[in-house]
Amino acid sequence: MSDQERKQRQSETTEETVAEEQPEVVSEEIGDKIDDLLEEIDSVLEENAEEFVKNYVQKGGE
Questions:
Q1: Which pTM value belongs to this model?
Q2: 30 exposed, middle or buried (CB, 10 Å; 0-12, 13-18, 19+)?
Q3: Per-residue pLDDT of the chain (62 residues; tens, 9 = 90+)
């Protein structure tokens, strides 16, 4: 096996490893952001749920 082939195979292996790890990191970040958003919504609803619902009423074709 030539040096070029060996380097190419190492490169492919490295790329596959990086590609496999990235979705997990992105999923964690998105999950954290969703959790933060849900906590914020919960706090708003705990404070004044009735007003929140009144402001959410759809108007016309919205």
A1: 0.45
A2: exposed
A3: 556 566 666 666 555 555 555 778 888 899 999 999 999 988 888 888 888 777 777 666 65
